[in-house]
Amino acid sequence: MPLQDLTPQLRTRLNRMERAVGWFVSFAMLLLLAGFITYIYHAAVNKGWFKIKAQFYIYVATADGISVGDTVSLMGSPIGAVTKVEPPAPREKHGVKVTFEVLEPSYRYIWSEGSYVKASSSGLLGKRGLEVTRGTNGFALCSAHPVEHLAVDELARRALAQPQRWQMFQNLYDANSNLVLRAYAQLVTTNQDGSLDTNNLQQLIEQKRAAVYVYDNTIKRHNIASIWNREQQRYEEYTGEAVQLPIDESPALTERLDQIVAQIQTALPNILALTNRIARILDNTANVTSNLNSSLVSAQPMITNFAVLSGNLRQPGGLGAWALGTNGADQLNVVLTNTGTLLAHTDTNLDAITEDIGVTLIHLGNITSNLDTQVANNPQAMSNLVKSIADTDDLIQGLKRHWLLRSAFKKKATNAPAVKK
Q1: How many C-alpha atoms does 412 have within 13 Å on its Cβ side?
Q2: Could you read off the pLDDT of 239-291 as tens digits, one per residue?
Q3: In which domain, by residue range, is 31 found?
Q4: Does residue 318 sit in helix, strand or coil?
Q5: Residue 269, in any domain of the structure
């Protein structure tokens, strides 16, 4: 029915319900809008929209395996992504230019010395990953502090008025190329007792420079403000151009596979020759085993006889029966019996012979004793015996000189050499 036909009470209730529904819809819309804004904010934070970004680039031989959006890592953690992959110009001496951005605070680890990019294979599908190494020496290539080129007098006034704020933004050398002040050195510091240490400022003044590059450490922008110039050894104002990094590039997976295939093709003839040799060896082995089988069949009777022989030898007295024959044992027993009897008689005869030798020795002792007694009792007998022996010798010598018997005592001729006189 028309709204005008409703009673005042129903119209009042309907207006209240309409206002409640309106407030509920408005609250739901605000809640949905707040959730959407929160989602956008967290997505922006995760993507690093509010972080400082530093631009770097490298040159690679080929862009194979590298595409826009690939992750760039540092010490195993993602620090940025590839933003551009640009092919070289027709006469450009460099390769493909790959530009990537590094988020805060990771760009502070990329220094002028020791930082380079490694492009290596990261998967089985030909992908290549970019990894930046941490710097070991030098200075950060990018900084969020703006560089200021101030006169030395103005810098001295500011440094004394604001100690611990102004720092060198360049390496300062003397006339002999000796390093006087290093970049990031504070010009004026405050000691523990509250006094000012102006040694660095005095060294700067002694160099008599018109102006130097410095920065105020209390001022930091939300973007890259200065970059390190390796040739000039100082920071300069950032113009928006990316900073080049050296590259350590390993061959792409496809190139490495091509090299492996080429090596396999080179080695394939040798492999086939080796397989042919192995086949010949197997044929020779089969022939040897066949000949060995025939030899085993031929040797089977010998093995059977050996088994029978070993069985006979295992029986008691088998070795003697095999060596001496069937009657050898009886004959050996007879021989041993006779030998025992002979040894028994030999023992008896040996005793009798020993007794006879003892009696003989006793008689010989008596004879020598009697002879000694006769010689002692007849001293003239020995002298007569000696004289008889001498006369006999004279007789023999006389017979040798007799003309009739001389030929009987002639000496036979020998081949002995003549004696020299």
Answers
A1: 2
A2: 989 999 999 887 655 566 666 777 777 777 878 778 888 888 888 888 888 77
A3: 3-46
A4: helix
A5: yes
CA distance 248 to 59: 10
Helix H or strand E segment including 117 = strand 117-121
Give me the number of domains the chain comprises: 2
Asked if residue 409 is part of any domain, the answer here is no
Q: pTM (2 decimals)?
A: 0.54
Q: Is residue 173 helix, strand or coil? A: strand
d(CA 164, CA 195): 12
- In the listed set 266, 298, 330, which residue is the last one of a domain according to the structure? 298
Tell me whether residue 333 is in a domain: no
- Tell me the C-alpha distance between 376 and 365, whole Å: 16
Structure tokens at 126: 């030909």
Helix (H) / strand (E) element for 395: namely helix 379-401
- Dump the DSSP string for 39-93: HHHHHHHHTTTTS-EEEEEEEES--TT--TT-EEEETTEEEEEEEEEEPPPTT-S
